[in-house]
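User: quick one, sequence for these tokens?
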């Protein structure tokens, strides 16, 4: 049986699938927990680009905790 784990602000994550224009494999930290299924992530592994926002809202099923 799988054990559910609470996710918290400050945890480091990696995207397992593309989200809001950010590619799979992008890494960052959780800056806010919006609800039971979505978190706000600040991406830190991507170079700064004017067209890519470094803060995204990602569903938990597209994240891997590092």
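Assistant:
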């Amino acid at each position: 049986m799988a054990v559910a784990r609470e996710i918290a602000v400050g945890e480091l994550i990696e995207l397992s699938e593309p989200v809001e224009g950010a590619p799979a494999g992008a890494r960052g930290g959780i800056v806010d927990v919006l609800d039971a299924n979505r978190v706000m992530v600040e991406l830190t592994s991507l170079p700064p680009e004017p067209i890519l926002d470094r803060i995204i809202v990602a569903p938990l099923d597209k994240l891997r905790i590092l």
